[in-house]
């Protein structure tokens, strides 16, 4: 099983951002934790980060055929990334959306989630644990719904 782990704008700045909202770990540290967790379950992860919506869409279009699912933290694209939404739908892959902070308890504009309704689940507000829980849910879904 291969899962694409995609991180959007500003997530490369984790570890330097507001620790109360985003925790203290860097993106590399979160990816390392995810990698260890996935390895223990015999799952392969492919990590990608970009601050640019178009690059994320290009990546999805290039990698979809070789993947079984998508774990995504779209960052601020959550609130306005309609072309990202369309690209995710086009993959026809199961998706779990994660957020480090609880976007529902922040500024009003952050409560808008243009990806709502296309993901199996939306895990938010658990800082780096959001990723582990999201990955676990995605793996379980894929294993329970595999056509093999």
Structure summarized in a few sentences:
With 148 residues, the chain is an alpha/beta fold.
Structure write-up:
The mean pLDDT is 90. A five-stranded parallel sheet has the order 2-1-3-4-5, with helices on both faces. The chain is an alpha/beta fold. Helices cover 37% and strands 18% of the residues. It has a single domain (2-144), classed as 3-Layer(aba) Sandwich (Rossmann fold), CATH 3.40.50. The chain is globular. Helix 3 (53-63) packs parallel to helix 4. Helix 4 links the parallel strand 3 (69-73) and strand 4 (95-99).
* CATH fold-level topology: Rossmann fold
Order of helices and strands: EHHEHEHEEH
Question: Helical content, roughly?
Answer: 25-40%
Look at the structure and name the CATH superfamily: Dehydroquinase, class II
Our estimate of the beta-strand percent is 15-25%
The neighbouring-strand order within the major sheet is: 2-1-3-4-5
Termini Cα gap: 12 Å
Structural class: alpha/beta
Number of strands: 5
Basic shape: globular
Features:
5 strands; Rossmann fold; alpha/beta; five-stranded parallel β-sheet; 148 residues; 5 helices
Outline the secondary-structure elements.
Blueprint: E1 2-7, H1 19-22, H2 27-40, E2 44-49, H3 53-63, E3 69-73, H4 82-91, E4 95-99, E5 121-124, H5 129-144
Parallel strand pairs: 1-2, 1-3, 3-4, 4-5
Helix pairs in contact: 3-4
